[in-house]
Amino acid sequence: MKFIEEVVVDEFLPTFRSLLAADLRARALTQHEVAELLGVSQSAVSKYAHGDVTVNDDVASDERVQETVERVGEGLASGDMSQVQALVEAEVLIRQLSARGDVVASLHEEAMPALAEYEGDFRVHDPDSEVRVRERVLSSVRRGVRLLEHASGFATLIPAVGSNLVECTPDAAGVEDVAGVPGRILDVMGRTEIPADPEFGVSVHVASMLLSARDAGSSARACLNIRYEDDLVADLKAAGYEAVEFDPKGESTPDALGPAVGQHPDADVLYQTGGFGVEPIVYLLADTAPDAAEMARDLL
């Protein structure tokens, strides 16, 4: 694991300081004066001047880096720019270069190839970045899955079609924004079998049911399907959950949930009692995957 800040320290800063030191020396400043302005030792300035510090060519050749070096160098040399302003200018440049597809971000992706899996524009250190949001969802699903895996007897709640535990991003627009277990959670000889680590876009059915419930007015972000029994629904109601029955309509489409959720947007439990070729199922809705898993575990 390599932080983007490490890329800044290892690649950007030595290059930026080398270029800025060279610019200031070219403006007739002494090594002592350059060292004072940059907040480094004279020996460091000497190393910069003699090329003893490795320079990243991608950073050095970037026009914004060159423009900032020239502007900061001129400002520091003339006294028109304070060290604080110079620092701010450099920090702004770092943030620009850290955007997806930019120099620092690309160097970070080379060091952390897994980042390349994410699409769109993002900054790793942005608290609202796509990476952080989606990784938090995956982490939440992993916690929920572990709860189910270690819940004694959960296998007895798995329907014949299998279960899945899913959670979506706050602004989910489709199945690709919903994380779940690849394949399904299975009952293998009385043992809960988790086939693989959670991923996005791998659960079409349960994810679609969650999205349908949200489209109809539910605020839930997680869903777990379990087998149906009258006693299970009764226990959920006794525990204070709002349980609503819906017409499966063959469950060929998750739109079957719409009318029920539309009338009961705060429902925690949605269930159907089956039909021709349709297995009866209970869907547990919750704020997070661990919350949905806890709902199921409380039934054991």
Description:
With 300 residues, the chain is of the alpha+beta class. It has 2 domains: 4-117, no CATH class; 130-297, 3-Layer(aba) Sandwich (L-fuculose-1-phosphate Aldolase). It is 46% helix and 11% strand. It has helices spanning 4-26, 31-38, 42-49, 57-60, 63-78, 83-97, 103-111, 130-149, 204-215, 230-238, 258-263, 289-297, and strands at 165-168, 178-180, 186-188, 191-193, 199-200, 222-227, 243-245, 269-272, 281-286. It has a 7-stranded mixed sheet, with helices on both faces. Helix 1 (4-26) crosses helix 5 (63-78). The longest helix is centred in the first third of the chain and has 23 residues, at 4-26. It is elongated, with a radius of gyration of 28 Å. The two termini are 39 Å apart. This is Helix-turn-helix domain-containing protein. It comes from Halobacterium bonnevillei. GO terms for molecular function: DNA binding. InterPro entries: Aldolase_II/adducin_N_sf (IPR036409), Cro/C1-type_HTH (IPR001387), Lambda_DNA-bd_dom_sf (IPR010982), ThiN (IPR019293). Residues 20-48 form the HTH cro/C1-type domain.
Brief sketch in words of this structure:
With 300 residues, the protein is of the alpha+beta class. Helix content is 46%, strand content 11%.
Q: Biggest sheet, strands in spatial order?
A: 5-2-1-6-9-8-7
Q: Architecture of the largest domain in CATH?
A: 3-Layer(aba) Sandwich
User: Whole-number average pLDDT?
Assistant: 88
Q: Count the beta strands.
A: 9
Estimated radius of gyration: 28 Å
Tally of individual domains: 2
Return the structural class.
alpha+beta
In whole angstroms, the N-to-C terminal distance is: 39 Å
What series of H and E elements makes up the topology?
HHHHHHHHEEEEEHEHEHEEH
Q: Rough shape?
A: elongated
Residues in helices, as a percent range: 40-55%
Q: For the record, what is the CATH homologous superfamily label of the largest domain? A: Class II aldolase/adducin N-terminal domain
